[in-house]
Design a protein that fits this description.
With 457 residues, this protein is an alpha/beta fold. It is 34% helix and 23% strand. The protein has 17 helices and 20 strands. Helix 1 runs parallel beside helix 17, helix 2 crosses helix 17 and helix 11 packs antiparallel against helix 12. The radius of gyration is 23 Å and the shape is globular.
């Protein structure tokens, strides 16, 4: 029987083990933490509130994710986001401003100054970018859409997705689809127009930001943790918790030896490393030093999530929307807020609301070191005005992540190539890290399915 050791019990490691379940293999997961699932975790709080420690939903446009959910018999547990959450806000001028979704609304929106609004249509007449030159997100967006679009809309979006710095992130690595659209069609607006026309003819729609098929924000009725909880329950006899891998070496007769904390050694024919960059680099230090060097060069943003429960009467804002994001120049330390109880059912009891604030990111690494009291005070002081808070919250729950989100900075694709070249000679070694192949859950599950297919064949 083939022996597969999966190091890391986040959603990637769990999904790989699940995809391998029908093979004549012994796939075991070794997870350092006391629970499986990584950052995908839902917590039922006292008083009938439900908090998300990590992502609160996913776009249901990725077939790999849909296949996994169907195989787990979780389709009936899915819940699309409410129509109420279709509106997104950006913080500006001391208040929450709706993000315009139609051209006329954009031209009259106060989000950008008039010069910034008029600059966007001129993108149609911009030529291609510098050939062979890697641009930051800010450089790309400023060149195509203008400085105001970069500093307000895109900066806010990047805060929400990567908690990142648009002056450091690589456009090609972080948003490859937009770079591809420019290269293929000669511009973003031209590309979007042609993509929209083609997809309308095919009965499809697309997202304006990425050009990808439009998915509906979706979660599970019991929170996103339902996915990882179900995976962990189905794989219970294959998971060893509190078992950190500290060394990886080739076995004497082929295969690999995984040394666990405490000294136990696991023999495996093949190994899957489903880990963040720092522990992944540590395990590859001896086997593939060039890969370890590249992995150590991948920075991370730290993030703190604060779940806040209120009586409805104590929040003056309508909360009719998904939430808001804040560009870094707007003066808030908060990256944004998700209006959880407006987006999905079961997040707050009747007469109450629940939302989750995010603070930290690449611009504010010190936030994760603040005390609970300081974090609570900073966030509440910042939200009192825009959300019209009339009282303190009933309760606050705090989740801290020192290594929350890998940052795809300039040179990231070269680092990925260096890692892959260094491990390519190591037959039977597989990588499934969001530090390399995409930070979104959908992309993690695409990679997980691909790794499982490679092992099967």
């Amino acid at each position: 029987m083939k022996r597969i050791a999966i190091i890391g019990g986040g959603v990637s490691g769990l999904a790989i083990a699940w995809h391998l379940r029908d093979l004549d293999v012994e796939a075991r997961i070794y997870e350092a933490a006391g629970r499986a699932g990584g950052k995908i975790q839902s917590e039922a709080l006292q008083g009938g509130f439900l908090a998300e420690a990590g992502p609160n939903g996913y776009l249901n446009s990725e077939p790999a994710t849909e296949r996994l959910i169907a195989s787990l018999d979780l389709v009936d547990a899915l819940e699309p986001a409410s129509a109420r959450s279709d509106t997104r806000f950006v913080y500006g001028h001391g208040r929450l401003i709706p993000v315009p979704t139609k051209p006329l609304a954009f031209l009259t929106s106060p989000l950008l100054p008039l010069a910034g609004r008029l600059r966007v249509p001129l993108e149609l007449f911009r030529g291609p970018g510098p050939e062979g030159e890697e641009e930051t997100v800010r450089q790309f967006v400023r060149r195509r859409l203008g400085v105001h679009m970069a500093d307000v809309m895109i900066d806010a979006m990047v805060s929400g997705i990567y908690a990142g710095d648009i002056d450091a992130l690589s456009m090609k690595a972080a948003f490859p689809r937009l770079v591809e659209i420019e290269a293929t069609y000669g511009g973003l607006l031209k590309g979007m127009r042609q993509i929209t026309k083609a997809r309308k003819a095919a009965g499809e729609t697309h997202t304006a930001v990425t050009g990808q098929p439009r998915g509906r924000l979706t979660a599970f009725k019991g929170g996103m943790g339902a996915l990882t909880t179900q995976l962990a329950a189905r794989l219970e006899d294959q998971i060893e918790l509190g078992r950190a891998a500290v060394k990886l070496a080739r076995g004497a007769g082929g295969g690999y030896q995984v040394t666990l904390e405490g000294g136990a050694v696991v023999e495996a024919d093949e190994v899957v490393l489903a880990l963040p960059a720092p522990p992944l680099a540590a395990l590859l230090e001896e086997l593939a030093p060039a890969a370890a060097e590249a992995l150590r060069a991948i920075p991370y943003a730290s993030v703190v999530v604060l779940g806040l429960a209120f009586r409805r009467e104590d929040v003056g804002h309508s909360l009719d929307g998904f939430g808001f994001l804040a560009p870094r120049h707007a003066g808030l330390r908060s990256l944004g807020v998700r209006f959880s109880s407006s987006t999905f059912s079961g997040r707050a009891p009747e007469g109450h609301v629940f939302f989750e604030a995010l603070i930290g990111g690449a611009h504010d690494p010190e936030a994760v070191t603040l005390s609970d009291d300081d974090l609570r005070q900073i966030v509440l002081d910042e939200l009192r005005g825009p959300l019209d808070l009339k009282a303190d919250p009933l309760s606050v729950v705090i989740y801290r992540y020192t290594h929350a989100i890998p940052q795809y900075t300039l040179g990231h694709l070269e680092r990925v190539a260096q890692v892959e070249a260094a491990v390519e000679p190591l037959e039977g070694l597989h990588l499934a890290s969001n530090a390399l192949y995409g930070i979104a859950m959908n992309l993690c599950l695409v990679r997980a399915e691909a790794v499982a297919t490679r092992i099967k064949h």
